[in-house]
Amino acid sequence: MAAKPLSRPRRRRLAATGAAFAVAAGLLATAIPASASPDGHGHGHGGGHGHGHHHGRTVDVQLLSFNDFHGNLEPPQGSSGQVTELQPDGTTKDVPAGGVEYLASSLRDARKGERYSVTAAAGDLVGASPLLSGLFHDEPTMEAMNRLDLDVTSVGNHEFDEGIAELTRLQDGGCHPVDGCYTDGRRFRGADFPYLAANVTDEDTGRPVLEPYTIWKHRGVRIGFIGVTLEGTPDIVSAEGVKGLKFHDEVETIDTYAKKLKRRGVNAVVALVHEGGAPASDAYNYDCDSPGPGDGISGPIAEIAKNTSPMVDALVTGHTHEAYACTIPDPSGAPRTVTSAASYGKLFTDTTLTYDRRTRDIVRTRVDAANHVVSREQPKARDMTRLIGRWNELAAPVANRPIGWIGEDIPGRGADTLESPLGDLIADAQLSHAQGADPEADLALMNSGGIRSDLVHAASGSEGDGVVTYAEGFTVQPFANTVNMVDLTGEQLLAVLREQVSGANAESPKVLQVSEGFTYTLDMTRSGADRVVADSVQLNGEGLDPGATYRVAVNNFLAGGGDGFPTLAEGTDPYVGGNDLDVLVDYMTANSSEQDPFEAPSADRITVVE
User: Fold this and answer.
1) SS3 string of 418-431?
2) How far apart are CA 587 and CA 516, in angstroms?
3) Could you count the other beta carbons within 10 Å of the beta carbon of residue 537?
């Protein structure tokens, strides 16, 4: 696949490389280099801007970054729109943050006075988006990212939600093949920045489906950016979304392209990695390097960072929606900065990379990185306000339709428990839908990752009167899944429950939300599959019968074995039901009113022992 010329003026700083260099076999055959680059490596952790340092041999390059925006153009509601801030006295407080009007203001203010500034993202800019963006296949978010002067991004798993053809359209432009153009006389122009997908190849040709890397150039400074998504993307995206694609090891891929960049004379390299970790604190401004480098973070990104070639000078990461600015030793033992800016545009990371003109590399003894809050107390960017207004006008006939009433907040994504009140409500809605088609349906299981937000009473309706709008429902369930049914034996159903905490989910449990009448105990003091207490599983007060057959409602993603539940794919007598959002809308409309709104379910169906 030949490199595409960068025809838009703003993109002249970026030199695309051409994906034809890579084949799948080459991606998997790269050894990790043992030697570090010649500038000497170390790391000074802290905050602040470079403010245009360009004395003699070195210049400071400002790297602004964010990740997991997920189409949140308007400020996200409830806990999804807050960041936890550590106070000087050791306490924490929640700070409202996010919204592209404020993100644009933050980034533009941060760039002031900087002679060298590049802005990058680490995937999931789109997908699982609120209605304002998702209704229009995320064209509004692409327009916003162009206005933000985003220079480059990696793909994330959600960029594949609608398949590679749609992702390519978001890159190249053109009207949607089904819905067409949304405004007369206005053709979607695509992204002004390259999407990088170094470890995603076409299974027939072996070539990357998008550019694997790009080179940022400005006043003699050259920095290579390599973009990858998590190798496990097929496990968390629908089979249709990744059809015809192969996803390769992150470390081996990054190392392959770091070598290619070096052969092109580019020694300064940043990896944009859509994979993340679990920080030791929820506070965005905690000291990740206390008591030592890398001690404040665990999870997949820690292992990736420890094994990625020392030729890579920094890793911008995402996926876990966490905030951290850490140093993790590379294979040579030298610390290297690894950052993530939470999600939904609530934070941005400001990293200062000191570039040595003689070695054409980053001086890693002089790297600073810190996360900053996208405060809602600053002025809004007017161009973003106009953009939001224009798309809101188009969305209004659909978005403002009432679908139900709530009497209080119903936490979902923002719940701090394994079972969420909104998860219970959604599972009940899906069981009700299933029983409408088959009265013998027994229970429903819902993946918590498919619940993208909360239902917030104060934000509901135009005056906070508890009215839930279609837009709010869409924000909660934006994937357009179907509610299906399969038959499982009691033995298989128990296996499904055990897969929540074993196998692919052993390190990071994925607890399914359950419908009313289905109960069991999850003992987190045990390990692996034993965490599910087998003799505690009951349906409507009766113990689970291993030999009996149960009719189980699940969405089509779970029915295909997604999220690490292969036993669900073994279900028999499949039935494909209605759209999951329509199911929620119908349930809320039929079972709530202004006089009798929904209260938050008690979330007591799963007894958790900790």
Assistant:
1) CCCHHHHHHHHHHH
2) 14
3) 18
Three-state DSSP string of 444-481: EEECHHHCCCCECHHHCCCCCCCEEEHHHHHHHCCCCC
Rounded mean pLDDT of 113-137?
A: 97
Q: Are 152 and 14 in contact (CB under 8 A)?
A: yes
Does the pLDDT of residue 337 top 90, yes or no?
yes
User: What does the pLDDT look like over 559-578, one tens digit per residue?
Assistant: 999 999 999 999 999 999 99
CA dist., res. 156 & res. 123, Å (int): 4
Backbone angles phi, psi at 425, to 5 degrees: -65, -45
DSSP string of 128-155, one letter each residue = S--HHHHTTTTHHHHHHHHHTT--EEE-
Question: To 10 degrees, what angle do helices 100-111 and 139-147 make?
Answer: 20
Strands 213-218 and 402-405: unpaired
pTM: 0.88
**Which of 233, 249, 202, 213 shows the shortest CA–CA distance to 120?**
213
Structure tokens at 347: 């934070």
Concatenated DSSP letters of 296-346: TEESHHHHHHHHS-TT--EEEE-SS--EEEEEEE-TTS-EEEEEEE-STTS
Q: Give the pLDDT confidence score for residue 384 in this predicted structure.
A: 98
Q: What's the CA gap between 389 and 174, in Å, rounded?
A: 22
Distance between CA atoms of 240 and 602, rounded to whole angstroms?
Answer: 36
Q: What would the two tokens of residue 220 be?
A: 């003699």
- List, in order, residues 6 or more apart from 297 with CB less than 8 Å away: 277, 278, 279, 280, 288, 324, 326, 328, 338
Give the tokens for residue 116.
Answer: 């060298």
**Polymer length of the chain:** 610
Span 257-314, pLDDT tens digits: 999 999 999 999 999 999 999 999 999 999 999 888 889 999 999 999 999 999 999 9
Backbone angles phi, psi at 420, to 5 degrees: -110, 150
